[in-house]
User: Fold these one by one.
Assistant:
Number 1:
Amino acid sequence: MAQRLKPVDVVTIGVGLTGSLAALELAETGLKVVGLERGAPRYTVPDFQSPAIHDELRFSIRKAMMQDNVKVAVSFRNNSDQTALPIRRWESFLPGQGLGGSFVHWNGQSFRFQVADFIYRTHILERYGQKFLDACGPELTIQDWGVTYDELEPHYDRFEYLCGVSGKAGNIKGQIQAGGNPFEAPRSREYPNPPLKEPYFGAIFRKGAESLGYHPYPQPSSNLSRPYINPLGLQLEQCVFCGFCERYACEHYAKASPQTIILPVLLKNPNYELQTSCEVLRINLDSTRKKATGVTYVDAAGREFEQPAELVLITAFPLNNVRTLLLSGIGKPYDPKTGEGVVGRNYSYQTTGGPTVFMDESININPFMSSGAPGTMIDDFSGDNFDHSQLGFIGGQYVGSIMTNGRPIEFHPTPPGTPAWGLEWKRAVDRHYNHTILIQQHGTSAASRLNYLDLDPTYKDAWGQPLLRMTFDFPENDIRMSQYIADKVVEIGRAMGGKIVVRGGTERPYTTTVYQSTHNCGGAVMGSDPKTSVVNRYLQCWDVPNVFSLGGSAIPQNGTYNYSVTIGALTYWALDAIKNKYLKSPGPLVHA
Amino acid sequence: MIKTIGAAMLTAGLPLEIAKTDEHAALCGSNAIAAATPPVGATTPPITYVFFSTEEAAFIDAAASRLIPADEQWPGALEAAVPNYIDKQLAGAWGRGERLYRSGPWQQGTPSQGYQLPFTPAELFHTALAAINKELAKAGTPFATMSADQQDAYLRSLEAGDKDLDGVPSGLFFGELWEFTVEGFFSDPVYGGIRDMVAWRMIGFPGAYASYYDLVDRHGITIDRPPMSLAEDAHGHVHMNPGIRAHSP
């Protein structure tokens, strides 16, 4: 039987971005906090060091930093008429494992969402009307977040300074700033650090985009442009453009991660205890099912423990937050037939893809000199920055040249018509490797009543618990959006001097076999109505008020941008409410 | 003073003027092979097979030489020891199903559901190669003895996917073989392929260098320097910042 441990004030399920940030905030108030991490401990020194970290096969192809599919997977189907089957190897998305979570192997692409994203339904209805939205797709279940941009701004600001984000402000308190993104939501001040150097591909994109009247700007990056000491006193270094960022950890202390921006301070706090290689099986509830008593977990040796806690924070990867809620019986599971229930509802993803631009042989791109977020981009097609009234879809994408690497197993482009193998293939790889630019389209994923997460009826993990089951395909709305923008981006590729420009754009069906994005989104969404949300505006579970579910699972539908910085801001926002309201009077922070 | 160690110092230890091949080649001593000089006429390396049988190895060797053939300019997959890479991968943990979810029940899925067979990579190769060699032995023309054109035609027939190789769809097998071939052609030499880093020199990928900070904004420069393998990295630098604790208490 489970060994019962000494009660603590707070337990976090997962020690990644949200788990370490929340733990630090609460340990500093004097509360005893235990962090349970399913993966191994790992630190910049010695675990992330050169030369071993620059190993494309091990990290990019064999995915050494990701959840071990031998033990746990996710089952998948495109629609609820199919039988879900396990994703036996990760390809489409890559949930991280180990201390620091996915915030170790991220690229550092550091965006804020826009003002309209937080009031998405309200905004779309006000600008275009219900009839328009119905025509985009009656199955769409977009909704407001329950928190506004203005409320989150101070938390965005705080998190960006924790990370040391490098960028150029485009909008400070409503004043448009030269050199930045004119579409940016208003910021209270400049980024903590200036933008990264612009690689050649970015400079070529900038010129092409400008010639068409678009508004290029340097991508905000948590790979730092200069040495920086964050507000916790931790020193970060300058990114050296090694070209091994996403799917890798940073050897140089140059990328914001829990290891570089939080953990060295947290681990010194006597109120904090880190437990690694601990698989949380469930959150335990008392007989009323309205109060959590703690969690049950299994350690690396298979021993079961019960960790009692006053406050339980679910701080795992978004998909695992949803699974933890389902395994614990917290919140009513979503039923796509009736549209009732909330846990698993509004699972969304991200639309990706973009053209490949084949350049003249005289132009050396040197794509291996790169960083995780070195892009030059435009927001002219992001979110609702352009008039959709005649277009028949909602949403948009940012567009930019963000070549993070030239690692050759992953990157060896050949133009259409090249044989898939053989001598001509080899010669084409030789010809084009250093003379090709990728442009990314990356954007919104509208929530749909057809897409959801629940527990798989058949497949189990190594601990005998059901896998999470994902039912997902891109709504037609998102295909129309992506294809519309694909046409525009091809023009940019030509303006860049591309000899051959291969059009991008998202297609159906969604497939798990090609990498697209690790911004899995929603499933335990925030909102102001318990009938359409799992957590309230402070990320507190409606049904069990001493459980908070922090992270990307709370985002009701994905906006245009990579969501990591928004997750950081949401975590600070929720922790502000926990510290200043909940701890003074534990109970529901919002009455439905 | 010691606090100021940072990127400036990290990069200072590296060969910043790496565009100057000669200078760097001198630093690298006899191990340096100038990028611009491909090893024309490179020979087939001797390989000690630990996974493939002699018959299986004959197929893999011959297939590698057709999938990425040698020409007068650059060696192909066989000369680059790609079969050695595949052999060692299949003999090791990856071949035995590392990071592969292996619980049933088993059923064919849609293409978007990905790989759904019970075979580990090692089992998949043994099964498919046995079926191929049996079929070709019956026909009296083992793959390795075919002409290049015949070999290409046979590989295309596998690629088309309409053959059943004792439970392995031939298109799936071809896809795996091709993936392993590309990996062995481009992955670091520590894994037993990419002999002499030929594929890296062909495309101009420099390998595991740690910094391009001083080069990234020198747009369009020609990087003409010998590539560096993980095993060769002799910088001896430790990216340690004494201001940050390395380990948990």
Note: Chain A is about 25% helix and 15% strand.
Number 2:
Amino acid sequence: MTIPKSIDKQWRLFATGFSFTVFGIGAFFIAIGLLLFLYPIPFSKTKKQIWTRRTISFATRFYVRMMRAFGLLSFEFKNIDRLGNSGELIIANHPSLLDVVFILSVVPDACCIVKEALWRNPFTFGAVSMAGYISNNSNGPELVDKASKTIKTGQSLIIFPEGTRTSNLEQLNFQRGAANIALKAACPIRPILIGCEPMTLRKHESWYQIPVAPPLFTIEALDALVIKDCIDTNRPSVVQANHLNQYLQQKILSELQVRKLVPKDESINK
Amino acid sequence: MNHTKNDIYTRIHTVLVEQFEMDADSISMDAKLRDDLDIDSIDAVDLMVELKSFTEKKLAVDDFREVRTISDIVDAVHKLAQENSTAT
């Protein structure tokens, strides 16, 4: 049975709107649920944080499967058994709004750096604060401090070094913050490659701009990188941060290119 | 101890060449930190640590917010150094 294109698109428009609503309401009810059932239990703060993160991870697992069931997208995970090590800096390229949802769905106890705005949003406030996520409201050096301390306590931290969703797909533009955090925490770096074809939910796009076809997301974990194998660690710290940043950017870009995950020109201007 | 603006500039120049491995020719009083030298707020902290000998106290990142060019740093550090020498 073939569904006419216009009906398919209208269905996906409706289902996308519904999914966004589910996200907001879901986050709100998860927060209420945790507040009622987890918060009163005399667990340590750390333990509550872990359970909050596990709940979020479970919810995101459900969420992406729900979107797949609606025919909005499909996805493939590769080598995700490599994830789940503690105390790693997880870095990824950032083609879409859903990237972090996919990563959280496979990393059950990860910390994230989250937009300050999510603390002011009543739907997301509860979840982000109970999960112990780091807000991006502090200045660069403070953020590097907080983030590296978090990794040193054995948590893994997810960062998109581009700082925002990819705008120029031909070249990634990594900010040095992620490299600085890795250097300060002296931790392994775990690259994740995210493919999204055709592109959807990019920076300049609204939720109702439905992609021409349901996108395929590929989420692939690479082997962890050890800093001293990437750069000369005898150089001054500023130079190390620069070199590590360049190295990571080049590494992710070249691995994306090998897999042909860097989109072609025509889909960029669409 | 009284430092002239020239002393401060010389020190900044040295730090940028030695610690930041920058091309000496790219550094001038008018060079913009972000646009010309690609110095971000995290690098700025490292630079400030190196300049502590002039100010004798740690510079807060907020002191740095208004700073755009090398000459802005020279002025800011000079001002702090002056305040220190009059205070003690």
Note: Chain A has one domain: 5-268.
Number 3:
Amino acid sequence: MKLPDAEKLCEQLVAELKPLIGPKSAMVGLYTGGAWLAERLHPLLAMQTPLGLMDIAFYRDDYAARGLKHDPKRTKIPFDVNGRELLLVDDVLYSGRTVRAAMNELFDYGRPASISLVVLADRGGRQLPICAQYVGAKVEVPAGMRLTLKRADNGKLALSMESERAT
Amino acid sequence: MQRNPQLNEKGELQHLLSTEGLPREILLQILDTAESFAGVTEREVKKVPLLRGKSVFNLFFEPSTRTRTTFEIAAKRLSADVINLNITVSSATKGESLLDTVANLSAMQADIFIVRHESSGAPFLIARHVKPHEHVINAGDGRHAHPTQGLLDLFTIRHYKKDFSRLTVAIVGDILHSRVARSLIHGLTTLGAPEVRVIGPQTLLPAGVEALGVRVFHDMRAGLADCDVVVMLRLQSERMRGALLPSAQEYFKHYGLTADKLALAKRDAIVMHPGPMNRGVEIDSSVADGPHSVILPQVTFGIAVRMAVMSIVAGN
């Protein structure tokens, strides 16, 4: 199956988001794929506030079953969250559990004016009442497969499909 | 071969009993996780929901303020419930055995036991008898080990010096009675610090200490030369009575850290101390409060390190 070109989706998202950026806007990318996407979008949108990066490891709902996985990254929110219009950025939207965890973590930093969700790809399969406001593409993913974002050494982004058992 | 009692069958950290024998990957996992928790402790809301619903029992058979308090803060920041037991006024004095005490707490649905005990090996004994979902963290046992202190020392060193591969670290003072020194030495050698020195009088160095991979110095000035990190140990006043040392003044003259002795170390050397410190015995106030001192940051880092240890063991 042919996957959409991640680079083209980035351009499309930039065009869509640009008119919305105002003085209160700020962006937070979710590790790892969402952080790559946010690092790409943030300068292209010429946002005033520095980029925030978040690892939701300490807010996951499957800690009891899976424990703490290796090497959680340090969340860095270099701006005051209170009153911000936040763009929350992730690579692939699936169950919605990561987004729920991210919103819980964000509210421990303050009370944003709003949160909008930006994703490169929506593969369906939601387990929570969560939807994205800005979606690069809807992608159908067969059962047992995982859709992920890869970043090449030259910084180029690409979507990739692999078996869930592969890792 | 017998399995390391701290690891489960998958090689993951189940209990933290000692830094001795812990693989490098696990030490690094703890330090990296602590780094992420250090971010949490700088926020306005210093809590994460990870250990919600878990009960942490602080089981201190020996007095402690700093360690017990930082464990308590760490557990609360992980949203656990913390129960502090003051054992000196509890069942132990009524004759209850250690394992009976633990079995009773287990019946109260404990998840994590933080244990400090004057007998070396007590946390190991408890770890052998707890249920599979229960975890034991050693908060200092006799002269044997104090792994979270060793880990927070490692975290502090990495914070200021970035990596271990070129460091010279000197540990000064009462090595013989120090569980802190032992835990730090094991950690440093596992993480590849090329030179670890111990400095102290013959009477305060354990026989055969070289076997731990350290260089021994009796002359403090020679031992401090070109060091990156100086770790001062507390001189326990009770050692004076045991004829190991002539007097506090005499000890300070030879092994107390003063500004002029510290000048022999590297210009950007850091000075550490696990506390509580005796000013004018092992360390001069001008050094303890001086620009090289990272003694208070050590305490702050200790919270993040203990959060990391608890959240890793409770998830395995």
Note: Residues 295-315 of chain B form the longest helix (21 residues).
